[in-house]
Design a protein that fits this description.
single chain, about 200 residues, alpha/beta, 5-stranded parallel β-sheet, 5 strands, about 45% helix
Length: about 200
């Protein structure tokens, strides 16, 4: 038995003073969670912020709901009956755009590095740990549903010649061409998809 005195942490602690909803636009969100209390809390927070929220209780319902209505964001629990969040994400990712490219955020207490890597491997874009605070939820939603009209204009942010030249030194011409073509297609799909 021993005791260790540790200093109070200040690094990594964010001050969320001000409006955490800044830049967040009203969005349609699909929330998949089998625990009613989690769904009620998250749903209430999101509705309070002006979002429309549809709730399902398992991954199979999430896959079905994603095909019935256009969502701006899917918040997905990992451990659910019938179909877990990882398999649901894989199935959603297999669907054509815009459904298959909808941002999916894991909502889970499983946040060890290996677990987070599994989420990303299944196609999830991000994660938020449970239990979460309202400002953390708003921040993650804002990250994936930010308002293009409210985004600050950054001068000359579109093209970095030095980074492009470095990429050209690393990749052969055909690989670079394939990458640029796929990037162009992805941008076209994003621009063509409805914002609401």
């Amino acid at each position: 038995w021993f005791a260790v005195a540790l200093p109070v942490a200040t690094a990594g602690v964010s001050d969320h003073s001000g409006d955490v909803r800044e830049g967040m636009r009203p969005s349609r969100i699909l929330l998949a969670d089998d625990l009613a209390v989690n769904a009620e809390i998250a749903g209430a927070f999101l509705r309070q912020a002006g979002h429309t929220v549809d709730v399902v209780i398992d991954g199979a319902q999430a896959v079905a709901a994603a095909q019935l209505a256009p969502y701006d964001l899917i918040l997905m629990d990992i451990q659910m009956p019938v179909m877990d969040g990882l398999e649901a994400t894989r199935q959603i990712r297999a669907l054509p755009a815009p459904i298959g490219v909808t941002p999916i955020v894991a909502m889970t207490a499983n946040v060890l590095p290996g677990q987070v890597a599994a989420f990303k491997g299944a196609g999830m874009n991000d994660h938020i740990g449970k239990p979460f605070k309202k400002d953390q939820l708003f921040a993650i939603v804002a990250r994936w549903t930010w308002d293009l009209d409210a985004a600050p204009v950054v001068p000359n942010a579109g093209f970095n010649q030095a980074a492009f030249d470095e990429l050209g030194e690393i990749l052969d011409a055909s690989t670079l061409d394939a990458y640029l073509t796929s990037l162009s297609v992805a941008i076209d799909e994003l621009l063509a998809s409805p914002s609401d």
